[in-house]
Amino acid sequence: MLLIAGALLVVPLLLLVVKDRLPGPRLARSAQRLVLVLAAQAGAVSLVFLLVNGQLALYASWADLLGQQQAPVPGRHLTEAQQAVQRRVTHGELAAAIDRAVRATPRRAVDGVLVHTSLRGPVSDIQTSTDLYLPPQYFQRAYAAVRFPVAELLVGHPGSPAAWTRRLRVDADLRAGVAAHTSIPFVLVMPNVNVAGRLDTACYDVVAGPAVDTLLGVDVPAMAKTTMRVRPDAAGWAVGGYSEGGYCGAYLAQRHPATFTAVLGISGAYDGSKLALGAPVIYGTDPRRKLEASPEWRMANLPVARLHYLLTASREETDGTYTSTVAFAAAVRAPATADTIYLAHGGHNPSNWARILPHALSWLSQLPGMNTGMPASAALTASQIPAWSRAGRG
After folding, report:
1. CATH code for the domain in which residue 373 is found
2. What's the pTM value of the predicted model, to 2 decimals?
3. Which residues in 243-289 belong to E strands, given as ranges?
């Protein structure tokens, strides 16, 4: 498609060459010129869209773009027996996908293994695309008995899991951090949160709709723990992401503190002002439901879980992200903790998020209990850990 769009850019040149040589009566020549102009415009617009999509990984497929993903249905109607069958099928499919990817990756002990697959949540009954990254250490003899910590990474809306590895290159950052002893190895789980076409669910169990909270907070961790050598305890699990993925991480961790211990909030908003525009569709008519979807409101009004937050933003994010991040960091209260990274420059874009990621991985690696079971060779070199990744405790 990129090549076709680029080829269409020759149409303006063709127009300049032939505009005075077109055959036929005046009306026919005018129609032909109009077709050439429209083709030129279509080529230019398509080329820009494809280039932007390639940079941001907003849409991974035509179905994503057109909102034609398989319609999710609420999984809460499933009986226990149905859920048990669904678990066996889903976990078996995930294990098979991982096995195929491992066998197809000869350099797995050097580069790790990236798995692209599609999964249906046993409880939520939602099908979504998911990327998994198993670090090189997963396949090395020194780590054969290790259960790895997990970072469940979420994209914004719109977005696809491919953004994490194609644009942000989190897997490369992780390999570099482990080599420099500024990070321990993590298993990265990157589910697609955008499961309802154009509807932005804000990672909520939609009223009479898809149970996205259940998918991300229950199904995905359960499937990972069943099929991979990962930590079963909350001290080994983090959740979060960029933009709305940062908000989702805070909300999911507050909802599932027995599953997650850490939150990565990269350019997120937490006060409810940027929640899904389709609020009545998402939250129903009870105003408390939308209040409870705000991490800042939950921090002030509900019991506080022992969670660790890394909250980052740029001072030049003028869309409310920076002010919301500062306010939420100030609102975090014991037993929760918050660290912050505030960039002086940059907007709400992948370039800034990519700058944050190496420090976020170092921050995660230093959390209490995150390195449980790691061999001595995985120890961090404190002098090489960036000081600013620990700055700004809220």
Report:
1. 3.40.50.1820
2. 0.82
3. 262-266
